[in-house]
Amino acid sequence: MNHFQQQRSHVWHIFSGLLFLVIFFPCSSGAAPASDEFIRGYAAAILQRDFQITVEKLNVQSGVIYIRGLEAPDEVRDRMKSSLSSIEGVSQVFVVEDGKITPTDGKSDIATEVNVFLPRDLLFKSLLADPRWPHFSVSYQQYQQNSQLERVGSTSFGETFSFYRFGGPWNSQMEVGLQAGVFSIFDMDADSLDLVNADYYVAIPLSLKKDNFSAMARIFHQSSHLGDEYLLSGQAQERINLSYEGFGTLLSYNFPLGFRIYGGGGYLFDRDPSDLRPWLAQSGLEFRSSEAWLGGALRPIVALDLQNFEEGDWDTNVSLRAGVQLENPVFLSRKLQILIEYYNGSSPNGQFYARDPVEFIGLGFHFFYD
């Protein structure tokens, strides 16, 4: 058994240990699925902050939010429903007209449609351990037994934006948006901190959400470039013009206590070089505690992302991250995550894509706005 096979077998022991420490400790202190009272408090804060609506007009029954006696234009109602629907555990949001009897079975013929331009949140939440999910981040990575790199700085700049949200099939919500990001690594041992590789990514995603289930289909493009200083240093292998388009799908389901599983796959087309093998698969498990500490400002996190590429002979690439999420209880869409990172597998960086084995441990700061 070689070094990398041994490390892959050890990663499951690492993950299980982190999962026990980070998950079961908060669970023992009373973590529970989102209750109606929790949803009501969360929704009340949003309504008071963004719409100046008092809590007396709000009721929650079995994950369904009812707002009574609301006098507001249709566009305000749409924004309100969009914001409240993003709360974990919320299945539906109804605006109940005066004089109507509030239903108790979670059904109503007076629910407003969801048609929102530039909604403030996302239906498909970010994948926390995916090395190529567009967001803002900076990390320090210590490479293990690598002939080219040892101390590496990694940065990413990007985000996912939703353009338009609308009603979908089966009483779901759907939205179309844009993903864009730049992923770069730097040689921290070089005198001028040489840029080694930069990948440029853009995608058009179509997302769907129904209760705890969400899905995303996207068409994407990625191109890769070696840094000039790294090329001049003489360390670089022969440069390849790596560029491709692709289509991918992801399915996700949220479980109680903050657990989430996801999986999907994709196919690359318009590939350069043309002999790049096209199929890929992805799956993962995340835990984001349903109970925040320190007055709602700190939340434990563990995330595992697994990716397999036909180009890499279907070997599993393991990305594991664990740490805490800092959040503002007033602006809940803004999150800062401080995470210990571990990666073992084929390099995710374009010029070394699915060819060179990489193993590193690091510390990262990640910003999300979903």
Can you describe this structure?
With 370 residues, this protein is of the alpha+beta class. The chain folds into two domains: 36-113, Alpha-Beta Plaits (2-Layer Sandwich), CATH 3.30.70; 120-368, Outer membrane phospholipase (ompla), Chain C (Beta Barrel). The chain is 16% helix and 46% strand. It contains four helices and 16 strands. The chain has helices spanning 3-28, 36-51, 74-85, 228-232; strands spanning 58-61, 64-68, 92-96, 116-117, 136-143, 151-167, 173-187, 195-210, 213-226, 243-254, 259-272, 279-288, 298-309, 316-327, 335-346, 357-368. Strand 10 (243-254) and strand 11 (259-272) form a beta hairpin. Helix 2 crosses helix 3.
